[in-house]
Amino acid sequence: MARSRDQATVVGSGPNGLAAAIALQQSGVHVRLLEASETIGGGMRTAELTLPGYLHDVCSAVHPMAAASPFFKTLPLADYGLEFIDPPVLAAHPLDGGDAAVLLRSFEETVRELGADGRAYRELVGDLVQDWPLIAGDLLGPPRIPSHPVRLARFGIKALMPSTLLSKRFHSTRGRGLFAGMAAHSIQPLSAPGTSAIALMFFAVGHVAGWPVAKGGSQKIANALAAYFRALGGKIETGVEVKSLDELPAEEVVLFDLTPKQLLEIVGSRFPPHYRRQLSRFRYGPGVFKLDWALSGAIPFTAAACRRAGTVHIGGSFEEIARSEADAFHGRISERPFILLAQQSLFDRSRVPDGKQTAWAYCHVPNGSPVDMTEAIERQIERFAPGFRDIILARRQTGPAALEAYDANYIGGDITGGAMNLAQIFMRPAPRWSPYTTPIQTVYLCSASTPPGGGIHGQCGYHAARRVLHDHFPDHAAR
After folding, report:
1. Between the CA of residue 182 and those of 97, 161, 196, 231, 248, what are the distances in Å?
2. CB of 166 closer than 8 Å to CB of 124
């Protein structure tokens, strides 16, 4: 259906809202972007959370998917102040006894570091590293006829397996632990089908694009996207909370960078009953409990590799991590939680006063959990870095309720826009020919609750924008 007006509104300025706005504006559609907060960015924000002069990433901190994003790679973001820094060790996985497994930018060096498990790593990850440029568009988009079906199937056969099964290719504690830490990014029990896909993708993306941090903080990604959008002629209004569809211009296309729960609150009464039921059944995953620290020095990890890593996966053996992730998913509190820790200031001195450091970490907890995990998290870090507590100058705790209060997209502390189980990966948020459309022709969803799901990559927004161009602005779609 062609439209007489080449205008659209995007609600929400997270990575997907910004990506949708940019893709539409690039094609000649005039876009107004509305953000409820006074600061743009969603999960890409940076602030002084502990002490003056200590910059902390409020949500997302390390950006392998931003570096690998097919859409972001087309944008001149470096011209707008974005600089990525790759640590010498992308990710480290400490083990009891002082050893650690590592993910390095070099595929061959990672294979060598894994020793006897290097051959298994080569067999599992090597093809995906080679095939990534050809199948990334299929993996990071809506279900479609694949461009390279044989190569995609080669990945899919392994990816659909539960991590508990595929990890048996590794025989050492190092190899199995490293695999578990990657798979735990799925925020699912490691026995769930499809969790291997997350592990394999994070390994491959590390070799293809790195696991960088943004110099100056994650806010720099949002700022660069916004500056480029404005340079194209786009308009951004902050402090504007949309509570009803009636507040927006009638007949104008609107894309919501929101989750199904919020979409129902804004538009629900306009949707037919069957679609309301589908959105109401959308499942949210476990939440997170996050800590930020101002530190007097670097974390004293026993394993030297951890002192050179941007990301540290703390959880010990595969079995221990599997128990922790199952606990969070099934509503239990883990006494030894799996922790994702980032130490950005080791490589970006612009974030801290001279001689000081920061650290950022979270563990998975049951959705909406009120339990304070500070002691459990710090105990786990101390296990692999004796003396850690002695260097803490200040800390900031952020549980699921506080995360949702900060950003309404984080329902119950779920930072991925909904559970990343197998069904919801392929049918987010509801079974439709195009997951970005709704029964209202002018209303679209462009958030992490659509394919390909959570992460700072903008692909959900980009694909939603392409759908809008096809449906409403065919003359612009060819640009």
Report:
1. 21, 14, 9, 38, 42
2. yes
Instruction: Check residue 390 and report its DSSP letter.
Output: G
Contact 72, 84 (CB under 8 A): no
Whether the link from the prior residue into 273 is cis, omega within 30° of 0, is no
What sign has the CA pseudo-torsion 11, 14, 16, 19? positive
Name the token pair of 260.
Answer: 């199904």
Q: What is the mean pLDDT of the chain?
A: 95
Extract the tokens encoding 435: 């997951």
In order, the DSSP letters of 413-469 are G-SSSS---HHHHHSSSS--SSTTB-SSTTEEE-STTSTT-SSTT-HHHHHHHHHHH
Q: Is 189 exposed, middle or buried (0-12, 13-18, 19+ CB in 10 A)?
A: buried
**C-alpha distances in angstroms, 377 versus 93, 241, 292, 359?**
15, 35, 11, 12
Asked if residue 314 lies in contact with residue 55, where contact means CB atoms within 8 angstroms, the answer is no
Residues 6+ apart with CB under 8 A from 34: 9, 10, 11, 12, 237, 240, 242
Q: Residue 232 phi/psi, 5° resolution? A: -80, -10
Q: Which H/E stretch holds residue 289?
A: strand 287-295
- The answer to whether the peptide bond before residue 429 is cis (omega within 30 degrees of 0) is yes
Residue type present at position 343: Q
Please give the average per-residue pLDDT across 52-71, as a whole number. Answer: 96
User: Per residue in 67-114, pLDDT tens?
Assistant: 999 999 999 999 999 999 999 999 999 999 999 999 999 999 999 999
> Which residue from 160, 158, 138, 159 is spatially nearest to 148, judged by alpha carbons?
138
Q: Determine phi and psi for 440, rounding to 5 degrees.
A: -90, 120
The two tokens of residue 199 are: 């592990």
Token pair belonging to 73: 């790679």
Pairing of strands 235-238, 357-365: unpaired
